[in-house]
Amino acid sequence: MAELKEISPDAPVGAKLMNWVDNRFPATQLFKEHMSEYYAPKNLNIWYVFGALSLLVLVIQIVTGIFLTMNYKPDAAQAFASVEYIMRDVPYGWLIRYMHSTGASAFFVVVYLHMFRGLIYGSYRKPRELVWIFGCAIFLCLMAEAFMGYLLPWGQMSYWCAPVIVNLFAAIPFIGPDLALLIRGDYVVGDATLNRFFAFHVIAVPLVLLGLVVAHIIALHEVGSNNPDGVDIKAKKDASGKPLDGIPFHPYYSVHDIFAVGVFLLVFSAIVFLAPEAGGYFLEYNNFIPADPLKTPAHIAPVWYFTPYYSMLRAITSEMMYVLVLCVLGAAALTVLKGKLAGFFKAAVLGSAVALIALMLSIDAKFWGVVVMGGAVIILFFLPWLDNSEVKSIRYRPDWHKYLYAVFVINFVVLGYLGIKPPSPINERISQIGTLFYFGFFLLMPWWSRIGTFKPVPERVTFTAH
To answer: 339-376 b/e with 16+ CB inside 10 Å = b?
Structure first.
């Protein structure tokens, strides 16, 4: 048992109370380790506020979600009416509901920007691989949470999106139909599905999400924050062991984040009060119509934050499979001809390529569409080992790397836009090209990330006071 710390009898009441707490829980020590004595690089810019904003939106979603569950009924016969009751009869229920629905989109906005910052500044590189992996797991968990929550209003779009997504699992060979039945809880989307999704959305997934967030923050504070220069500030310390290029997170960056929170809340409030549907992108008009199993909407599309992946799913057609077969053949040929492999390994590569091609041609394209959609997220987990660049930050990479990242962002936005639109031959072709570029960006990264003339990286961070 640790020795209790004594305090002067003449100390203020607040100090006595804090001493009493510290003797039983390390509150002051935790504050010092993670705030006032946690040294962050002094050159962090505006890109580094989105982590704190993600945490803010998570709190908004949890708090508003708790209040919504007080009046929501997870019953197929009453779910839509209970949402209408919240909107019309519960005091400020409309505000809580719109904060929750707008918060869902805001969550993905800040998370996408947070991930892009990590991408351009190399925040996934050694020693922060685990920080990145936890972050990608949070993103995957967030997608599951958003999808399950989307079904709960039991409107037309909620109802008809559910079978489209759940039936994707039915395309998995052998176990697909049983897996889809397990997820639905019935042979069609109905009351059992709604209850399962409600339980996962309210209890199971948030618990996992909170655990991953805590792990993400702990891992970050263990290795320290990255910075726009990609320089390790722990390499240069003063006599007391403090980084020369570091400043305490509190008060410097806590004030920085509070200002960002203020700006974010202004924008967030403007959307909630003036345009909560965002022209049908945040809340689709079909979702204000009660679910009708006998009337299918003219066009079924998921919410905007899923549409890039939905566009990739639709891009995989029977014709596209032949293009993918050629890609596999080309990759195997390059590996055998250019790679310094022994004869046995060359034969193994060719054998694996032939086996994969046989699978690709024998299994329906719908299954491979599911694989591509899932692979678009899973491939992010391997980013720390795909990037072979000499430097971390985009600042010191060749200029054409910046243009490549810009094209990647434009491509992702275009895929998202096409995912909202009804299928058409031209949209299908553009989606297929965009899908090939998306995967080519990552799969060819070990090669292109090493090419070009890199700028010298400074030994210490570059910082101009402002």
So the answer is: eeeeeeeeeebeeebeebbeebeeeebbbbbbbbbebb
The alpha carbon dihedral of 223, 446, 318, 425 has a sign of positive
Which two structure tokens, joined as six digits, stand for 83? Answer: 């949402």
For the chain, give the mean pLDDT.
91
Reference 437, options 445, 449, 427; nearest CA is: 445
Place of tokens 């810009």: 406
- Smallest Cα–Cα separation from 80: which of 343, 326, 286, 309? 286
Residue type, 57: V
For residues 132 and 347, the model is more confident at: 132
Sign of CA dihedral 83, 87, 92, 97: positive
pTM of the model: 0.93
Distance CA 136, CA 150 (A): 21
* Contact partners, residue 198, CB within 8 Å, separation at least 6: 74, 148, 152
Instruction: Report d(CA 16, CA 412) in Å as an integer.
Output: 56
Structure tokens at 327: 């890609």
The residue count for the chain: 466
Express each pLDDT in 348-376 by its tens digit: 888 888 898 898 888 888 889 989 999 99
pLDDT digits (tens, 9 = 90+) for 211-222: 999 999 999 999
Give me the DSSP letters along 380-407. GGGHHHH---SSSSGGGS-HHHHHHHHH
Res 241: pLDDT: 83
- Specify whether the CB–CB gap between 220 and 127 falls below 8 A: no
Q: Taking 90 as the threshold, does the pLDDT of residue 7 lie above it?
A: no
Angstrom distance (rounded) from CA 257 to CA 254: 5
Report the pLDDT value the prediction gives residue 274, as an integer from 0 to 100: 96
